[in-house]
Amino acid sequence: MSQGAGGSGRRLLLLAGLLSALGLSPTSSIHVYTHREVHGTVGSHVTLSCSFWSSEWISEDISITWHFQAEGSRDSISIFHYAKGQPYIDDVGTFKERMEWVGNPRRKDGSIVIHNLDYTDNGTFTCDVKNPP
């Protein structure tokens, strides 16, 4: 982290990872796209973009899960899950009441927004998309 001009702009580096969920055969894979790095300022918000492409139609059973691995940690935790047409935001933990679902699976978008950024938000975020037949 570095300070901006005048020491007032504290910056965060959030790494957005990607994870492709493979189907039963190589021709039915999902390609997931995220930004490699996302920067934010302490107290502000960032959008973690997650778009995906599949040669198959988007089923009603599509699921999208965001995981977070804190900087320096070996453990990853689930912080968001979308399934059966409903978003499920973690109601405990560090992202409680700071996360917003802005995605739309019909538009092949699984993006989230994290509000009120904190230093503890530094780490790797992974978007996992599954589109079962």
From TrEMBL:
Keywords of the record: Disulfide bond, Glycoprotein, Immunoglobulin domain, Membrane, Signal, Transmembrane, Transmembrane helix
Pfam families given in the database record: V-set
Residue intervals of the Ig-like domain: 26-133
One GO term (biological process): myelination
GO CC annotations, alphabetized: plasma membrane
Family listed: Belongs to the myelin P0 protein family.
Name of the featured protein: MYP0 protein
Signal peptide coordinates: 1-29
SMART domains xrefs: IGv (SM00406)
Keyword Transmembrane helix: yes
Topological category with respect to the lipid bilayer: Single-pass type I membrane protein
Location within or outside the cell: Membrane
